[in-house]
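[Meeting: bench + compute handoff]

Bench side (C.D.) handed over the final construct sequence. Compute side (W.E.) agreed to return the predicted structure before the next meeting so the bench team could plan truncations. Sequence as handed over:
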Amino acid sequence: MLYSLKAGKLWTKRSFYEVIVLTRFGPSGNPESFYEQGYKSSDQMPAWLSAMGLEAYEYQCNRGVNISEKKAREIGEEAVKNDIFLSIHAPYYINLASSEKEKRTNSKRYIIQTLTAAKWMGAKRIVVHTGSYSKVNKKWALETAIGLIGEILEEADSSGLGDVLICPEVLGKNNQLGSLDEIIEMCRIHERLMPTVDFGHIHARCQGSLNSPEDFERVIDMLEDALGFERIKNLHCHFSRVEFTKGGEKKHWNIDDIKFGPEFAYLAEVILKKGMEPVIVCESRNDMAKDALKLKKIYESLEASYR
């Protein structure tokens, strides 16, 4: 049984983790090159990605859940045909720790809407930004977010949406609710919560902390110690190079922009060493699909030495 700090609920332990069987790479959203090649609709993305050699796609609802059931099902059907693992990013403006009750209520509704779209699409995971500390105490923010997540899980179950994982994201700015420790604490309350570990965000939030395989391994070890290997073997990951300031994340860059970190090869070493098979979603600026393929090639170049 797992316990919710705020809601005071005991959750019955069940198995929610699908077997992915290989490390998958793909983009966050539709890159400019997709449209430059004459494609227009997101239901064309799965075949386009498969032809590139990619295996994952994170559909973006960052400005709102505006997709129709028909379109969602079309994307899902194409994903099945092309063996593309689907996830959805929930709206950016969600804030589970707002000081305003109305905004918290709306945030819960946006997550349920995203779960509904994921169910239509056959997406296995939704990625959620959990909010900020604006006008509130950090401890209150975390406990309030945990309580609201508990309510969301209950509503999802009653609405037939209980088979989609909710993946709170590690965020890159110091004023955001979403440090690695906070995301781990949120995910402790139920198996249906999986961290979205954005390594660029960790690097930025911690002022350039990921500079070796050992640095990445410490992150993975923290997750494994807190949640167990079963829950992190198929971890949901975001990766890109990120520029940062004293306040944390400033701007995402491309893999070839080596002025900025972190280095994916270090993470790839740890994934292979640990025997993990995560989903790696690339969030590079504009060229996220092309860069996802670059990440895959880095991974494959190291993979041979672990066989």
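W.E. noted at the follow-up: Residues 1-14 have pLDDT under 50 and may be disordered. C.D. will use this when planning the next construct.
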